[in-house]
Amino acid sequence: MRADITSLFGLNVYTNLGTYVGKVDDLVMNVDEGVISGLALSGISRDFFDVPTRGVIIPYRWVVTSGDIVLIRDVVSKFRKKEQVED
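and the corresponding C-alpha cells:
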C-alpha cells in the first residue's frame, strides 16, 4: 500500500468486521528502511484494550487498506477484555 503518510493522521481505525478500534495519532517508522512499522492509536476502544494508557501501538502489518478510514485485520479481537462474571 502506498500513500502520503500524513493522510493517515486522524483517521478512524476499524476491524474488517466493522468494529471501532481507535484513531491514528502518530506513526512508528523505521527510518533506515523507510517503512512504517506501527500505528499509534488514541481514543482506543476500551472493549478491546484494557490498558492504563491513553493509546496503543499496533503493528502496521495488520493494516488491510486505508482511505477515509483505516481497516485492519480482526486480530485485535484476541485482545478483547474478558467479560467479568458476577456472583
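(Above: one complete record from the training split.) The CA atoms of residues 13 and 19 lie 9 Å apart.
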